[in-house]
Amino acid sequence: MATVTLTADNFDEVAQGDGIVLVDFWAEWCGPCRRFAPVFEKAAGTHPDIVFAKVDTEAEPELSERFGIASIPTLMAIRDGVIVFAEPGALPGSVLENVIEQVRGLDMEDVRRRLEA
């Protein structure tokens, strides 16, 4: 599955849906971002049930500000409309796969209960 480009106009629509959305905050000039891009693309090809999305921080500074993105690349995982993971750094493929497994395994009822507490 190809990645989706997120903008201020479509971010909430994509992120608030059911299921998992992985968001790569990146910029063209960022070396680590360019190294992480093929890893992200490969994972997108092996997980068709997940939305893989990219936010160009240069083109969408309001999204970077909204989510407090201070370093790129930053990977954010959203499940059923809830941000469950956000961490800067270019992840190796094995670590990205581990993040995906952990996000899949979350008990979202428990997550929501904890958020309310």
Automatic annotation (TrEMBL):
Pfam families: Thioredoxin. Keywords: Disulfide bond, Electron transport, Redox-active center, Transport. PANTHER family: GEO12009P1, THIOREDOXIN 2. This is Thioredoxin. Belongs to the thioredoxin family. The keyword Amino-acid biosynthesis does not apply. The keyword Disulfide bond applies. Residues 1-105 form the Thioredoxin domain.
